[in-house]
Structure formats: C-alpha cells, structure tokens
C-alpha cells in the first residue's frame, strides 16, 4: 500500500557567508521506506555545529539530533562530512507520523577563519 509522506524543507535564511541549503518540495514515499534529506552548508567557522529539527503541523520545531549525538537512534541518523560540507539526515522505516517539515540548522562555534 502506497502511503504519502511529505518531507518539506524551507529555503534557508543565511547570514553573511554562513548558510545551509536543503532541497525544497515534497518527497512522497512508501511506508517502511528509508529516505535521506540532504543538507549542504557553507561557513567561515572551523568547527560549526549542525542540527536537524522536525516540525509537525501547528507545532514548534523539535530537536532531532546534531553531529555530536551519540545515543543510538534506530529512526534517525546523520553523519557530518566536513570535507564535502554535508550533513544528510537518514530516516528509516517511515511511518505516517514522520510526515513533517524537516530543518537543517547551522551554528558557528567560537573559532573562525580569518578573511
């Protein structure tokens, strides 16, 4: 049975040279499937912090994970690739309750590359 899941991402708000870029639009998928939501980032920080949030309709965004999350989660996973500057979110075993807006966010640490 085909179930529709809509994984939406919003065009990012950028600040100077620091920004995240996500695909925008709907991603219909089947129940039980696995999806990967891409997050590409640009920053002047030597060690940025990356995060994923999930927002259900009429609710505030809730934290899912960041690159330091070490507790095993069999639903969500993400691996930071600082060379490619990506932080893709993998969602496993999709359920109807996974339909939401997903946000990738970036926060600069205290160390910056001088320009």
TrEMBL record:
One of its GO terms (biological process) is adaptive immune response. The keyword Cell inner membrane does not apply. Gene3D superfamilies: Immunoglobulins. One of its GO terms (cellular component) is T cell receptor complex. Keywords: Adaptive immunity, Immunity, Immunoglobulin domain, Receptor, Signal, T cell receptor. It comes from the Eukaryota. Residues 1-16 form the signal peptide. Residues 12-114 form the Ig-like domain. It holds the Pfam family V-set. PANTHER family: T CELL RECEPTOR ALPHA VARIABLE 16, T-CELL RECEPTOR ALPHA CHAIN V REGION. This is Ig-like domain-containing protein.
